[in-house]
UniProtKB/TrEMBL annotation:
<keyword id="KW-0812">Transmembrane</keyword>
<feature type="region of interest" description="Disordered">
    <location>
        <begin position="1"/>
        <end position="34"/>
    </location>
</feature>
<dbReference type="GO" id="GO:0004674">
    <property type="term" value="F:protein serine/threonine kinase activity"/>
</dbReference>
<feature type="region of interest" description="Disordered">
    <location>
        <begin position="332"/>
        <end position="362"/>
    </location>
</feature>
<keyword id="KW-0547">Nucleotide-binding</keyword>
<keyword id="KW-0472">Membrane</keyword>
<dbReference type="InterPro" id="IPR011009">
    <property type="entry name" value="Kinase-like_dom_sf"/>
</dbReference>
<dbReference type="Pfam" id="PF07714">
    <property type="entry name" value="PK_Tyr_Ser-Thr"/>
</dbReference>
<dbReference type="InterPro" id="IPR001245">
    <property type="entry name" value="Ser-Thr/Tyr_kinase_cat_dom"/>
</dbReference>
<protein>
    <recommendedName>
        <fullName>Protein kinase domain-containing protein</fullName>
    </recommendedName>
</protein>
<keyword id="KW-0675">Receptor</keyword>
<dbReference type="GO" id="GO:0005524">
    <property type="term" value="F:ATP binding"/>
</dbReference>
<keyword id="KW-0325">Glycoprotein</keyword>
<comment type="similarity">
    <text>Belongs to the protein kinase superfamily.</text>
</comment>
<dbReference type="InterPro" id="IPR052059">
    <property type="entry name" value="CR_Ser/Thr_kinase"/>
</dbReference>
<feature type="compositionally biased region" description="Low complexity">
    <location>
        <begin position="353"/>
        <end position="362"/>
    </location>
</feature>
<feature type="compositionally biased region" description="Basic and acidic residues">
    <location>
        <begin position="14"/>
        <end position="25"/>
    </location>
</feature>
């Protein structure tokens, strides 16, 4: 009898605890939503023609993005949360908490949100030229960006990150700086978007220990190895992104000279061989060689294996300017990651494997590689 009674009490207690947890979640959600404008579900349904496929402009980390037009004629980007995604709910709340009050020319503006039953939606300003991966990295691209456009894109991203890292209090680490998260307006000015993985970074701490999140090819070595997040992880990602903008090539594996390599790996090999201009996008028919070289070298400073050697984003802005001479004697090789499935083929073909060291990590299906100077 006693066992039966205790079992019954435990079940009642469990139900009460679950109720408290759900109530706490609802209160937290309500507090976040109150920070920003609330759109009605019907308003967004009408704006997107009932979320019609013809208005689909992308897919985010936790749902689909649609183009919409409000009754007053304002164009918007409507980011819907997948109803099955628990991670997406966390990202939804994080995004509202992080950028509802943040305004900067190089950050995508959050206009509001909508919660309607299981539907959770973020509403952003609409940017006409989509993302960098569509404009620059898609083989079917129709847009042709000259060097003036590309250098302005790099500088704009740098200014946006410097604002997040050094001007905002508390500071913000984006954690997912990549080509698909940089949107371009009608004049091809860049705006950093998708703050679902962002972390607030108080002034009085050196790092945050956190579960690794982000995109392979952009992840800093120390972050993946130890889960220790600092602003230098964003700096690393910026360096990779800059190489993509200059080269028109993806950071992912590509066959370079008969061997599969990451873009940052190939860039370093070309730098050592004094052939860095070979990296430049063939579509760039005319460009100032010295300036383009400086941008690529700044990218290599940003992707150095040791985080403490990477510059702050405010320093990156200075380094990208024409008035600063880079001290290349201080430049050390990058660290990067390889999917294990590529390692054997890549290393067997790649002559530079003799001057590199690799350490397989048990908790991740990737290998960390740091190039050693010859």
């Amino acid at each position: 009898m006693n066992c039966s009674c205790f079992g019954s009490s435990k079940k009642v207690l469990q139900k009460k605890d679950d109720k408290d947890v759900h109530q706490s979640e609802r209160e937290e959600e309500g507090g976040s939503i109150a920070k920003t404008k609330n759109f009605s579900y019907n308003e967004l349904r009408v704006a997107t023609n009932n979320f019609h496929q013809s208005n689909k402009i992308g897919r985010g980390g936790f749902g689909t993005v649609y183009k919409g037009i409000l009754k007053n004629g304002t164009q918007i980007a409507v980011k819907t949360l997948s109803t099955e995604s628990k991670q997406g709910l966390h990202e939804f709340m994080t995004e509202i908490d992080t950028i509802s009050d943040v305004k900067h020319p190089n950050l995508v503006e959050l206009l509001g949100c909508c919660v309607h039953g299981p539907n959770k939606i973020l509403v952003y300003e609409y940017l006409e030229n989509n993302s960098i991966d569509r404009a620059l990295l898609d083989p079917r691209r129709s847009i042709k960006l000259d060097w003036e456009n590309r250098s302005a894109i790099c500088m704009g991203i740098a200014r946006g990150l410097a604002y997040l890292h050094e001007e905002l209090v508390p500071h913000i680490v984006h954690r997912d700086v990549k080509a698909s998260n940089i949107l371009l307006d009608k004049d091809f000015q860049p705006k950093i978007g998708d703050f679902g993985l962002a972390k607030l970074f108080p002034d009085d701490i050196t790092h945050i220990s956190t579960k690794v999140a982000g995109t392979t090819g952009y992840l800093a070595p120390e972050y993946v190895l130890g889960g220790q997040l600092t602003m230098k992880a964003d700096v690393y990602s910026f360096g990779v992104l800059t190489l993509e903008v200059v080269s028109g090539r993806s950071s992912a594996y590509t066959n370079y000279g008969g061997a599969y390599k990451l873009l940052v790996e190939w860039a370093w090999e070309l730098y050592e061989a004094e052939k860095l201009l070979d990296l430049v996008d063939p579509q760039l028919e005319e460009f100032p060689e010295n300036e383009v070289l400086r941008y690529m070298k700044v990218a290599l400073f940003c992707t150095q294996a040791t985080a403490s050697r990477r510059p702050l984003m405010s320093q990156v802005i200075e380094m990208l300017s024409k008035d600063v001479k880079l001290n290349e004697k201080q430049l050390t090789p990058p660290g990067f990651f390889e999917d294990s499935k590529h390692v054997s083929g890549s290393m067997s073909k790649n002559k530079s494997s003799e001057t590199s060291t690799s350490h397989q990590m048990s908790s991740f299906p990737i290998t960390i590689t740091q190039l050693i100077p010859r």
